[in-house]
Amino acid sequence: DVLVVGSANADLVTVVERHPAPGETVLGSDLTVHPGGKGANQAVAAARLGARAGLLARVGDDAHGRLLAASLADAGVDTGPVLTGGAPTGVALIAVDGRGDNTIVVSPGANGRLTPADVVDARAVLASAAVVSLQLEIPSASVAAAVRTAVAAGTRVVLNPSPPAPLPPDVLAACDPLVVNEHEARALLRSPTGGAPATGSADAADPAEPADAAGRAEALRRRGPRSVVVTLGAAGALVCGPQGTEHVPAPAVEAVDATGAGDAFTGALAWRLALGEDLASAVRFAVRVGAASVTRPGAQTSYPAADALP
Ligand code: ADP
């Protein structure tokens, strides 16, 4: 089984002609509400492929929380570990303008109330999973508690450090793999502790940084994780482990909307690892799932079933 430990959000989207300046009001299109959050996305991606996948998350005792629970259950995710209450369900308030540029306000809400004690209470679920998959949209102490509980139980850890933030050395060392896109790879390399930089643009050139993606993957692996996967959008992914670095191309597809592609990739990867596949084989499967997800709009709505892969 795969257990995802992470966030669940309601994404509230409206289309505007232009973004409001501070103090200004603009009118937007009819609101659409989509289930989101990286944790829920990954769990849905895995379940839709046929995985036995559960989600340890916290939602509010409110309409958004019930919507999220229903969409998770509909995808086949085990919602038994989902906790309720303590704060409103996390939301992302998203305004999209005519050029496709977004402004987003995230209110973490209940995601921020998933505590280390909640994680420890769920240790039996963590211990019975083959793979636990994490992101950084819940408190860092809860991520660390989940990783330590998984390690103690012999559960494999997959971690996508998004949004990028510092990771304790033992958490980084447990990752097998650490999964990053190119932006996250650069942000982590810029920080001496493997986390995000305190200052500077995340993508500005750094003379000390390896110039190519393979060099960055290897530099990240020297920070301690057992293995590293760098996703490269249309170019697929790099797998970097003890045997060296391998490029896995993605199938060529007609890209419509890349939202949630990384979450689809990681959910699929975690599932294949839970089935006992080696890392390179699991990545060869995951790039197909990521590619399928960009051919349709939305995040969870775009995730494929196993018989619909390129
Ligand atoms: P993120 O969504 O985190 O930015 P990427 O853009 O690297 O991550 O995409 C994750 C995965 O989704 C890629 O490794 C690839 O498998 C797939 N993917 C993304 N964009 C495309 C594309 N244009 N064509 C084919 N596959 C894609």
TrEMBL record:
Pathway: Carbohydrate metabolism; D-ribose degradation; D-ribose 5-phosphate from beta-D-ribopyranose: step 2/2
UniProt entry keywords in alphabetical sequence: ATP-binding, Carbohydrate metabolism, Cytoplasm, Kinase, Magnesium, Metal-binding, Nucleotide-binding, Potassium, Transferase
Residue ranges constituting the Carbohydrate kinase PfkB domain according to the UniProt record: 1-305
CDD domains: ribokinase (cd01174)
Gene3D superfamilies linked: 3.40.1190.20
GO annotation terms (biological process): D-ribose catabolic process
Regulation: Activated by a monovalent cation that binds near, but not in, the active site. The most likely occupant of the site in vivo is potassium. Ion binding induces a conformational change that may alter substrate affinity.
Reported function: Catalyzes the phosphorylation of ribose at O-5 in a reaction requiring ATP and magnesium. The resulting D-ribose-5-phosphate can then be used either for sythesis of nucleotides, histidine, and tryptophan, or as a component of the pentose phosphate pathway.
Full protein name: Ribokinase
